[in-house]
Amino acid sequence: MGLLSKKDTKLITDPLADNNPITIQVLGICSALAITAELEASIVMSVSVLFVLGVGNVVISLMRNIIPSKIRIIVQLVVVAALVIIVDLVLKAFAYELSKTLSVFVGLIITNCIIMGRFEAFALGNGPWRSFLDGIGNAAGYGVILIIVGFFRELLGSGTLLGMKVLGDPIEKTGLYAMGYENNGFMLLSPMALIVVGIIIWVQRSKNKALIED
What we know:
The chain is mostly helical. The chain has nine helices and two strands, in the order ααααααααββα. It has helices spanning 6-13, 29-34, 39-63, 72-94, 96-102, 104-107, 113-121, 128-158, 190-207, and strands at residues 160-161, 164-165. A two-stranded antiparallel sheet has the order 1-2. Belongs to the NqrDE/RnfAE family. It catalyses: a ubiquinone + n Na(+)(in) + NADH + H(+) = a ubiquinol + n Na(+)(out) + NAD(+). InterPro entries: NqrD, NqrDE/RnfAE. Pfam families: Rnf-Nqr. Keywords: Cell inner membrane, Cell membrane, Ion transport, Membrane, NAD, Sodium, Sodium transport, Translocase, Transmembrane, Transmembrane helix, Transport, Ubiquinone.
């Protein structure tokens, strides 16, 4: 028998596609709109949520039998807040400029509906291993969308990826710019993130008709 059973594998694969937290459950949209103008910020936010949700789910699962029902939300908030503080301190220590770019949005991980939703819906009723897989799966599903949106917004809006020029030099008119291409400044505005997410949702439902609501 492999490390992961069929049910365990689905905990990771389902959120990547047919049960994606952003495109299907419509959760965590705010950060998808706010921080995806740069691919690097999208990647860092994705990794941050991966850490917080993966570790947080395990902690809540381990504590699930001793948490009084009346204060479970408070306990969940304390756990996620502690993990977010760790992420914030690490970013400030090793990637200070990026931490300033992400600014308050790292702190807003605390109120991310995906995290609190998985604590409440899964970690409180399952063991640590399955809770860890569920956290990793949902965080990965969230991160994939952020990275896709960040990729296209930075590429089309700035002509760069991870800060490196990939379409040429817009000032010296090299690469695509020599053929008349101009950066689309609209891609750097938050509403364009919503449009890109909408296109992803459209493509996803076009490929899987079962996802189309009646």
